[in-house]
Amino acid sequence: MPVLVASDLDRTLIYSSAALALTMPDARAPRLLCVEVHEAKPLSYMTETAAGLLADLGDTAVFVPTTTRTRKQYQRINLPGPPPKYAICANGGQLLVDGVTDAGWHAGVQARLADECAPLAEVQEHLLRSADPVWVRKHRVAEDLFAYLVVERELLPADWVKELAVWAENRGWTVSLQGRKIYAVPKPLTKSAAVREVARRTGAELTLAAGDSLLDADLLLAADRGWRPGHGELADSGWGAPRIGALPERGVLAGERILREFLRVARGSAAGSTAGSTEVGQHP
Question: What is this structure's pTM?
Answer without folding.
Answer: 0.91
